[in-house]
Amino acid sequence: MKAMIRLKPGVEKLQAYFVNDIPYRVKLDANEGSNYLLKGGFNINHLKPNLYPDSDSRELRRKMAEYYGCDETNIMVGNGSSELINTIVNAYCDKGEKVMSFTPSFSMYQTYCDLCGAEFIGIETEEDFSQNIDKLILAAKDQKPKIIILCNPNNPTGYVTSKEEILKLLENIDDSLVILDEAYADFSYVTAMDLINTYENLIVMRTLSKAFGLAGIRVGALVANAKTIEYIWKVKVPYNLNIYSQYAAIEALSNTDGVDEYINDIKKLRKELYMQLEDLQFQLYPSGGNFIFTKPPIDNLFEKLMRRGVLIREFIYKEKVYNRITVGTKEENQILIDEIKELIGGCL
Ligand code: PMP
Q: What's the whole-number mean pLDDT along residues 275-280?
């Protein structure tokens, strides 16, 4: 057999993003939501799989623009916001150019940098995982990153950067593209979407994977001023969103009546889960997302719960173990709490 052709050196060191395929009873590990918008199903018989989809996803962009209160010229859609973040990092960064973000944050930012040879610079969050914008501004003035990515609310910590702090960042940074990853913004109260026409260097990322409960259809959006969208259209992969995803997203966006109620339910459940975990001596951090970041009171909680069919996420930061738990339905959260109670009982 001939030798395997090697990947680029910067890419070869990457760890593959393998996703858990363990059988489970309750899945609280990926910040997914409930399927409430398309629960009635939809008919796809009229779609034509032999033809390419609308490469520009015009109808979908019109629907999104209506929902987000902007113009369709402010929107580019992609195969989840993942595709769009990757595209942007690749398009703006040559080898060696810098991308700055806080750590811990969404781990894929670093991966997208590695793919194109950009240098990822992580600014450490504070002890309580709050994000010091002054520190970020100072580091940016010093290191002049091509891109600054701020995840708001932050995944995995749940920290919410205030509008004032976002404005401070935008006012103080002129030479970097600022990406605000708002994958979870529907669950908080802060968005920078209204600022896209004020700051030409601002891009806001949104997704239907979280508050819309549609992670499976892979639809995300990049929202920016029309000039920026037109400028970056050249790097959009043609036909990037298939006919089924476009159709499903249009269907979902055609009746968004239930979205606010769903978001409010999740916020209520988040509060309840927070209190239940607090009673069980978990160290907790305030969260603006559909998840809770926590330092558990017992060792190996992630593995112990996994053996009982309850999936959560484990993060190791500065040699300490943390968990991120997605807020599930009332029943799912109760199963989680019951299992934890049994585990903690077993430890006493
Ligand atoms: N940004 C953040 C902060 C995320 O947590 C995720 C998904 N986990 C994404 C972006 C990507 O979401 P999607 O590709 O499903 O739109």
A: 97
Distance 241 CA to ligand 1 centre (A): 16
Residues with CB under 6 A from ligand 1: 31, 80-82, 106, 151, 155, 181, 183, 207, 209, 215, 220
Q: How confident is the model at residue 208 (pLDDT cuts 50, 70, 90)?
A: very high
Q: What is the pTM of this model?
A: 0.96
Q: Walk me through the domains of the chain, giving residue ranges and CATH numbers.
A: 9-30+258-347 (3.90.1150.10), 58-253 (3.40.640.10)
Distance of CA 19 to the CA centre of its chain: 16
Q: At what angle do helices 330-347 and 259-279 cross, to 10 degrees?
A: 10
For position 347, what pLDDT does the model report? 58
